[in-house]
Specification:
By secondary structure, this protein is α/β, with parallel strands linked by helices. It has helices at 2-10, 24-39, 97-100, 133-143, 150-163, 174-185, 190-198, 203-213, 231-237, 283-289, 307-318; strands at 13-18, 43-48, 65-67, 81-86, 107-112, 125-126, 217-219, 224-229, 259-265, 271-277, 293-295, 298-302. Helix 5 packs antiparallel against helix 6 (174-185). The radius of gyration is 20 Å and the shape is globular.
Length: 330
């Protein structure tokens, strides 16, 4: 954590950003960092490539989670700013921030927990075994003896809850539970956070779920599930793109399914592929081979070619895991 602390001490002004289509951990870590820097007397702003999904609105506000759309939003003295890049270790996955902000700041620093095959630069702080970026930040703030307040606590808990899948994903550890215990002791209401994150979607999201499930395909003796959401399907359902983020997990509720693949397209036509797996199946390597990233059991990438083409390629890459019963063992 010393390198992070030195970066904070080095600058008086900061821009904070995260990956495109920010999720609970990205937004939680951004907001907690924003409040921490301000507590330290720093000037700080959040500038993201995409808007925050409405279900995370109980943490922060639209005014604080600014979306970078115009060059006029960039401070005139941007050269005096440090840039924190949170919850992503690929600078190509921060959207227009990479072209409008990154080349103009004095320096940038990455804090992340995703698996990566790239060289870890010394100015980055990447803990691949951490459950979430919010977990990393909580421990950082503890080391700094920074007093947390309830808005920071809520943000950190939200990020941990989201990126652990409600404390069930493989990187959830005793440390994760201890931090959650501490945050609840400080006043966070677990039920309120859960309701906001998982039980606040629209009726249209239910329609979307039914339409996406209707596209379900099963491969490799019903061990791999593939779902597809086109922009036409999204329009038909009347739902927002962000409300599709948990649909990839539905096939994994079956004991037989080892991999869930979800092709999804937003209303602007941007295509992505999300991957989830169980056991020893490494979907991060598949994602990284296509310019994406993530964890061994949860990853994703942008699709630069039609879904049908990408589906053939992904199934081919998964083939090695299903040659024998031993290859798919837990």
């Amino acid at each position: 954590n010393q390198a992070v602390i030195e970066f904070i001490e080095k600058y008086d002004k900061f821009i904070i950003t995260a990956h495109e289509t920010p999720d609970g951990d990205a937004l939680g870590s951004e907001y907690a960092m924003l409040l921490a820097l301000r507590k330290l007397g720093k000037t700080a702003r959040i500038l993201n490539a995409d808007p925050a999904p409405k279900k995370f609105a109980f943490v922060g506000s639209d005014e604080e989670f600014e979306v970078l759309v115009r060059s006029e939003q960039i401070p005139g003295d941007i050269g005096e700013y440090g840039l924190f890049i949170l919850d992503v270790n690929d600078i190509n996955n921060i959207g227009q921030v990479a072209t409008l902000i990154l080349p103009r700041v004095a320096e940038y620093f990455i804090v992340d927990h995703h698996d990566s095959e790239t060289v870890q630069l010394s100015k980055n702080h990447i803990e691949q075994n951490a459950s979430s970026t919010c977990e990393i930040l909580y421990l950082l703030f503890q080391e700094m003896n920074l007093e947390l307040d309830l808005p920071m606590d809520r943000a950190l808990y939200m990020g941990i809850l989201y990126d652990t899948g409600s404390f069930i994903y493989p990187k959830t550890t005793a440390v994760t539970f201890q931090i959650a215990h501490d945050l609840v002791s400080l006043g966070v209401q677990p039920n309120d956070t859960y309701v906001n994150v998982y039980e606040s979607n629209s009726i249209s999201s239910l329609v979307l779920m039914s339409k996406v499930l209707a596209t379900l395909e099963l491969h490799f003796d019903k061990r791999v599930a593939v779902q597809t959401m086109t922009q036409e399907l999204l329009r038909e359902a009347g739902a927002s793109y962000e409300e599709s983020d948990l649909l990839i997990n539905i096939p994994l509720r079956s004991g037989d399914i080892r991999v869930s693949v979800f092709f999804k397209e937003n209303l602007e036509g941007v295509k992505r592929c999300s991957l989830r797996s169980k056991g020893n199946i490494d979907v991060a390597s598949i994602s990284q081979s296509r310019g994406g990233g993530g964890h061994k059991t949860a990853a994703g990438f942008k699709c630069l070619r039609p879904f049908e083409v990408m589906k053939v390629e992904i199934l081919e890459m998964l083939h090695k895991y299903f040659n024998s019963q031993t290859a798919i063992s837990e």
